[in-house]
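Run log // design_07
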């Protein structure tokens, strides 16, 4: 999977991967580490126009309806070296809404950078690092790091470093450290959401066959909020799972166990699980499915904790050499526990996307896309529906 495709899907999914409180996705989904083939340095220039309509159920909130213009440049590169494969991608752009957006300027900026490297020190020892940072304004419900509502520009990033060692042909261990955080420009949102997380994990893996491995894993995560009092929390995870490769093009991972959550307000124990499935056929069809269940720290507000289930699938298919289609579905269920302070609240978030692209010339592609998102909540003030359609033109060289 080349990094240009990764960055576009990450806006809907990742790294969130990420993930943010995406410690699970970071641990088992390495979207940007597909070092199957070399990708030469490729530059892209994109122009786009569209229509965006965000409507809240509660009258008086910052709903908006506007046409917009968008432009951007990007670059990707992959070196599939057998000893030290690495890849890098950068995407810069801006969106100008033609009508005013309440609370915010009508211009928003996008900047995404990804860098991934792996090094085989010996037949037994391997190091790898995955880095991703984004500056944007669009919520990412898949990772759970951002708010679900449109709250203006934010900076989010993570870095995952891990060391793997094969003690024998069947038994290996992986030690990893992940740091991730988010910071909003809006002072009201920043006061409740800005935070930094650290995750340390130790995994033990036993290969039953060349394609199937059993795993046991312990993780410890701590999250500290920059401005919100009494919101800091930590989690310990005890997990077991399996990794299986049906082929070089189809792989899957599954983890399940318990999460021991403790904050300044409450201590809870709940089930935790995560799953990822990657499928690619001769570069013509690519599909990625993920799922996770556990506590996260976004949008806690006055609630004591939030337990969420998140899942999504993205599919890209090249019908002919010139014509391609893509589609995606992301869903999140959240249970906000208020204890004696507030009544419990449940929410359902859904994001649908579909697109088509056609290569006019060797280096010129036109595309059209549609995105729909909605939030259904026990608290009406948060409910919304959003429709976005766009038409774009991309030149690569």
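design_07 sequence
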């Amino acid at each position: 999977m080349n990094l240009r495709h990764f960055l576009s899907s990450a806006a809907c999914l990742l790294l969130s991967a990420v993930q943010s409180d995406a410690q699970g996705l970071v641990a088992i989904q390495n979207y940007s580490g597909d070092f199957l083939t070399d990708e030469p340095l490729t530059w892209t220039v994109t122009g786009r126009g569209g229509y965006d309509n965000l409507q809240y159920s509660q009258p008086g909130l910052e709903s908006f309806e506007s046409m917009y213009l968008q432009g951007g440049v990007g670059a990707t590169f992959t070196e599939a070296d057998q000893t030290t494969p690495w890849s890098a991608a950068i995407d810069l752009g801006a969106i100008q809404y033609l009508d005013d957006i309440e609370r915010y300027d009508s211009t928003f900026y996008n900047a995404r950078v990804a860098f991934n490297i792996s090094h085989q020190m010996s037949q037994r020892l391997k190091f790898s690092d995955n880095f991703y940072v984004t500056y944007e304004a669009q919520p990412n419900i898949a990772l759970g790091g951002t708010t679900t509502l449109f709250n203006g520009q934010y900076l989010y990033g993570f870095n995952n470093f891990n060391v793997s060692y094969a003690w024998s042909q069947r038994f290996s261990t992986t030690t990893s450290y992940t740091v991730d955080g988010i910071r909003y420009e809006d002072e009201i949102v920043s006061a409740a959401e800005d935070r930094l997380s650290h995750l340390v994990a130790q995994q033990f893996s036993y290969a039953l066959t060349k394609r199937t491995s059993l795993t046991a894993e312990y993780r410890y995560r701590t999250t500290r909020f920059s401005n919100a009092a009494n919101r800091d929390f930590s989690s310990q995870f005890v997990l077991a799972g399996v990794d299986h490769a049906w082929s070089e093009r189809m792989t899957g991972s599954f983890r399940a166990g318990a999460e021991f959550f403790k904050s300044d307000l409450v201590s809870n124990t709940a089930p935790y699980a995560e799953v990822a499935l990657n499928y690619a056929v001769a570069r013509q069809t690519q599909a990625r499915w993920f799922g996770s269940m556990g506590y996260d720290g976004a949008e806690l507000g006055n609630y004591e904790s939030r337990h969420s289930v998140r899942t999504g699938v993205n599919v890209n298919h090249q019908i002919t050499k010139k014509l391609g289609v893509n589609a995606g579905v992301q869903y999140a269920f959240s249970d906000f526990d208020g204890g004696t302070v507030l009544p419990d609240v449940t929410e359902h978030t859904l994001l649908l996307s579909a697109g088509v692209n056609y290569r006019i010339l060797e280096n010129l592609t036109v595309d059209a896309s549609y995105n729909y998102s909605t939030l259904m909540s026990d608290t009406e003030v948060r409910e919304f529906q959003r429709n976005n359609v766009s038409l774009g033109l991309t030149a690569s060289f």
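The helical segments are 3-12, 23-28, 187-193.
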